[in-house]
Amino acid sequence: MQIRIIGGSDAGISAALRAREVDPEADIRVYLADDFPNYSICGLPFFLSGETPDWHSLAHRAVFEGIEIRRSCPVRDIDVRQKTITVRGTDGTIERVSYDRLVIATGAVPVRPRIEGLDVPGVHELHSMEDSFRVKALLERTDAKAAVIVGSGFIGVEMADALTHLGMKATLVELGPVVFPSVDPGFGSLIEDKLRAHGVAVVTETEVTKIQRGVSGLVVAAKNGWRQDVDLVLVVVGVRPATDLAREAGIPLGERGAIQVNSRMETAVPGVYAAGDCAETWHRLLQRYTYLPLGTTSHKQGRVAGENAAGGDREYEGSVGTQVVKIFDMVVARTGLRQAETIGAGFPAAVTTPSIFNDHKAYYPGATEMQFRITGDPISGKLLGAQIVGHWRSEVSKRIDIFASALFHGMTVDGLNDLDLSYTPPLSSPWDPVQMSAQAWLLENVNSNPIRDSAATQ
After folding, report:
1. pTM for this one?
2. pLDDT at position 141 over 70
3. What is the DSSP letter of 253?
4. What element of type H or E holds 434?
């Protein structure tokens, strides 16, 4: 069995590893366009901040037993009729390689907004190891003191943190009315407050239109007249699926140009699979395919694609969109749907209820507040989503994972109260904050449901 995999990041390597487990005799070969198999792109801000000083440590693994890794060998085209791919070798030679099963895991590429001057020296994207090396080199060879970050998503806020860690003045520019649009605006405002408290300038409702060289650095200009002189500009406004190879091969594309797949991660072409940021994702709440580029999703989809390519029979069960980010000493997380997203899922009556609870018993030192926003359907009682903001040591990620597990299994909001969760005063309460936030939602929206009284144990 000849299994060929295009792409060596999360999905590609996960596919190769699982295929090797299922069929140890398979001839498995992974082709990379770069020289960095299975490196954590999510770790780039921490490498640039100096918190992870050695970039080699970003590799998830260094040994790929039984798998042939072809570094810096980009695939130029796919011939699905002949079942071959065309590869350019490190010496420039062109080779046609046959396959029995093909996994496309080409990932995503940065969105390039309509800004004049994106190719001016000192203007950078941040999506690959090479991108990080270029930024690192600029920081090391210059006395850079100020930076503008265009885009306030995950990489944007993390890089504001990273550059501040280096002692630089960071300015975060967002086109919308509030930063970090992945969460509700109220939580976005909390993020803005945290950024400003650490010296980050936050500029919203501002569309950057031009970047040019100035007398002593770069000048960033916006449509509304805002201008800033800086030494470095990072443009991180999102990604799109890297699907040129698939499109040119005639493989059908779907949501936002991602490769159409079924639950087995099969494309419409027999013997060809796709996984990761280049492929669609089944959303369990929306009950349809969408585009949801996340590292966790890529690993899972790659594992399913690799198992099936090697002769297995496994389905990808879908995502609920669980995400988390650390910004200075704050952690922000979400899973499921925000209220604004529930109409498309068939829940027009959905309601979001905010609440605030300590992360553990108040009598044990160090208790901090956690803010919750729970979204549910008052008609059926079904849990639809959750958002949490808290201190980075308050187990935000653990608690959002509880909500994610509940969403994955279609639980009601009230069903959270039946979960047997751990408790000790330094870490939680007899009713975990997850359950107290569920009770707050029930009290406000489903008055006829019995509400367990948590007052006596808080």
Report:
1. 0.94
2. yes
3. B
4. helix 433-445
